[in-house]
Amino acid sequence: MVSKLSQNWKYVIVILLFLGWSIGNFDRFFMNYAILGISKDLQLSTSQTGIVLSSFFAGYALMQIPGGWLADRFGFRKVIITALLAWSIFTIFSGMAWSFASLILIRFLFGLGEGSFFPSASKGIASWFPQNERSRAMSFMLTSGTIMGVITPIIGTQSMQTIGWRTIFYIAGAVGIIFVLLYMIFLKEQNSSTAEKVETTSKNKAPLRDVLKTPIIWNLFIAYFAIYAVQWGLMTWMPTYLVDARQLDLTSVGYISAIPAVAGIIAMLTSGYILDKLPEGKDKLIAAVFAVLTAVFLYLMAFAPNIAMFAVYQSIVTVFMSFNIVLIISAPLKMLSEEIVGTANGFINTGAQFAGVLTPMLIGFLVDAFDGSYTVAFIMLIMFALLCAGSLFLIRPKKEVAYLKKVES
C-alpha cells in the first residue's frame, strides 16, 4: 500500500516542483524585460544595468551550498516552502524599488530567498525517483525554465506597455504566496521517517570535502559555470541587444525571444529521456561536442545577416545548451548517494550562479568600453562555451565513480 502510494505520489511531487520553479523562473526572467523600463525610470547607465542584473545572482549563488545542506539535514520540504515564501515577498518588494541602491539590495535578497529551491528540489527528486528516472524527472522540472522563456517575453513586454513593471512584480509575488499554501498541503517527504533516515545515515555518508577531492565534481562545477555564463549572458542581455543593436520594438522583442525558448522546451524534455538511456561516459562526450557546436553557432549569431537567421542560430544554441544543462545537473543524482546529493548539487549549481553574477556585469562593461558594440561580448560567450567543452572532455567517469563509491562506503 505504501509502495503504491509512493509510486503515484512522486508524480505529484515533480509537478509541484515544476510549478514552483515556473513561478521562480518567471519572477527572475521578467527582470530581463522590466529592466528596459526600470533603467528609464531610475535613469540607470549600461554598467549600472549590468550590476542590477547581476545582484540577484550574488545572493542566489551564496545560498546554493547552504540550501543543499539544509535540505540534506532537515528535509527538502521545509527548505522549499521557506524559499518560495521568501522570494515571493522580495518579488513584491522589487515593484517598490525607488533607486539604484534599493534595487540592488532587493534583488540580492530575492536571490538569497530563491537560492535554496534548486538544490532542495534535487534532493526531492533523488528521494522520490529511482536512479534510471532521475534525468527525466530533472529535465521535466527544468523545462519550466524554457516554458517561462516562451511565456515571460510575451507577457512581460505586453504588460509593461499596459499595467507597468511594478504591477507585474506585485502580481507575481502574490501568486507565489498562494503556492506556498499549496506546498504546505501537498508537498511531502518520501515517508514519515525521512528525517530519521537522514540523521542515522549522516554518520556513514561521505563528507562533502571528500567528494570534492574527485576531479569530476570540479569538472562539472566548471562546465556548469561556463555553460550558464552563455545562458545568462544571452537571457539577461538579449532584450536590450535586440532593441539597441537590431532596432526592434518591444513587442517584436517579446516574440523573437520566445522562438529559441520553444526549441528549448523540446530539447530539455528530449535530453532527459536520452540521458537516461545513454551509457556512462558517452553522454559526457556528446555534451562536450555540443559545447563546441554552441561556440560555432554563437559566432554565427553575432554576425547573422538578418533577425530571422539570428533567431534560428539562437534556437540551435539553446538546443545544445539544454542537453548540457540536463546532463551536468542530473549527473550527481546518479553518481552520489541520496544523503549528500542536495549538498553536492548545491555546490555544482554555485558555479552556474557565479556565472550569473559575473556575465551580466561583464557584458555591460564591455558594451560601454567598446562604444555600444556587442561583438566582444559575443567573443566572451564563445570562449565560455569552449571552456565548458574542455571541462567535459577531461572527465574520466569510470575511475572517478569508483572513487566516489569508495569514499561513500
Automatic annotation (TrEMBL):
Major facilitator superfamily (MFS) profile domain: residues covered: 13-400
Main location: membrane
Gene3D superfamilies on file: MFS general substrate transporter like domains (1.20.1250.20)
UniProt xrefs under Pfam families: MFS_1 (PF07690)
Record GO terms (molecular function): transmembrane transporter activity
Location of this chain's protein in the cell: Cell membrane
CDD domains: MFS_ExuT_GudP_like
InterPro entries: MFS (IPR011701), MFS_dom (IPR020846), MFS_Na/Anion_cotransporter (IPR050382), MFS_trans_sf (IPR036259), Sugar_P_transporter (IPR000849)
Membrane topology: Multi-pass membrane protein
Transmembrane spans: 12-31, 51-72, 79-98, 168-187, 216-234, 254-273, 285-304, 310-333, 345-367, 373-395
Keywords assigned by UniProt, alphabetized: Cell membrane, Membrane, Transmembrane, Transmembrane helix, Transport
UniProt keyword annotation of Membrane present: yes
Protein name: MFS transporter
